């Protein structure tokens, strides 16, 4: 339905999931709420529950401990929802690739429970807030095609 | 169907939808002003509408621990109770001479329903955060009801002990309650209680976002969350209206300045909500109860005593 799709694009609520990040990406995510970047211009707000969310902002390498939790949080998010994999760690696990405590990558973890998941990648260590805003805009563009 | 029933249904629909639209607009003003205070740009004008429409299009998830009936019925009952309140209040504003005896009591009961339904829905969701939120909501309800009712006693006493909202409004045609010492005291108490009833910032402990993850609403998603948002927006539009009817004499349809004066009063009360919300930190539950029981209840009681003294001694300004 066109109207609800328009509304979804204009009001993306973000839930922030940390799957073992070093806190650098998390600081940059919080940067989006500050007066300089003010993501609420696009109707995006940070919410406290995955049940309210439309976007999962995933940071971190996805450790073995975090993997089932990430899948659970994804399943608790009402669909349609978008996953933003933020930072080099959540893309390729960076320097931790061969460490003993690694689970599968973030996108593989989520595709294991939902093969059709919408995942956007934001590279950088940490990515700039501008890059995350760019990813959010691309997510809005993609949601037009739903 | 008789003409009167038809007329009642039309009033109900018009008031419900009108209040809904007004609530969306007020919510936007609230968020925009908050953003400007924080030196941000803020959301565009259609933001609350987009939020509600989006939630309508999302799926409703039911937690495995939830009791389905109570969980899903609670937001619908809360929304419909708010819509009925809207019908009574707007009708009292526009045709004050056609109220029914005791409609003030009906309004007070109906305004309690959203809070009670919040408790019911939160308890039915089976989430520990939600149960903490529900406990806080009950304590908040116990805190603000007593001072609010005491404050309402002042206009009731000054209009000759009537419980008819329309007669309370028409009794203030000459001099509104707020232009007296007891009236000012009662309005101050009522404004703080309005803030608590709206769950706005100093008293938002039931859905404290950064400690209990939006508390009572934590398990709600999709259309049921949209019902909660709509009920809250409608309350944001209705409570200033109720305060104007009780303390400031409603709409003077006779004079040319009637409508602009009413709009001014309305904007003043809505601006007060946003102002208090932006300049205060959240209170703990014990601080909240202490404030309401040991500061506001005595203040409201003093206001009632002052107004009754004024009536018996014939001093209009008391």
What key phrases describe this protein's structure?
A: 146 residues; alpha/beta; Rossmann fold; globular; B: 318 residues; mainly alpha
Q: Can you offer a commentary on this structure?
A:
The complex is a heterodimer of chains A (146) and B (318). With 146 residues, chain A is α/β, with parallel strands linked by helices. Chain A has one domain (14-143): Rossmann fold (3-Layer(aba) Sandwich). Chain A is built from 6 helices and 5 strands, in the order αβαββαβααβα. Chain A has helices spanning 2-10, 24-31, 66-76, 88-92, 106-113, 129-143; strands at 13-18, 45-46, 55-59, 82-86, 118-122. In chain A, β3, α3 and β4 form a beta-alpha-beta unit. In chain A, α1 (2-10) packs antiparallel against α6 and α3 packs across α5 (106-113). The radius of gyration of chain A is 14 Å and the shape is globular. The mean pLDDT of chain A is 88. By secondary structure, chain B is mainly alpha-helical. In chain B, α4 runs antiparallel to α5 (128-158). Helices cover 73% and strands 0% of the residues of chain B. Chain B has one domain (3-313). The longest helix of chain B has 35 residues, at 3-37. Chain B is globular and about 65 Å long. The chains are: A alpha/beta (146), B mainly alpha (318). Chain A binds chain B through residues 1, 3-8, 10-11, 35, 38, 40-41, 43, 47-49, 51-52, 54, 76, 78-80, and chain B through 31, 35, 38-44, 46-47, 49-54, 56-61, 209-210, 213-214, 217-222, 225.
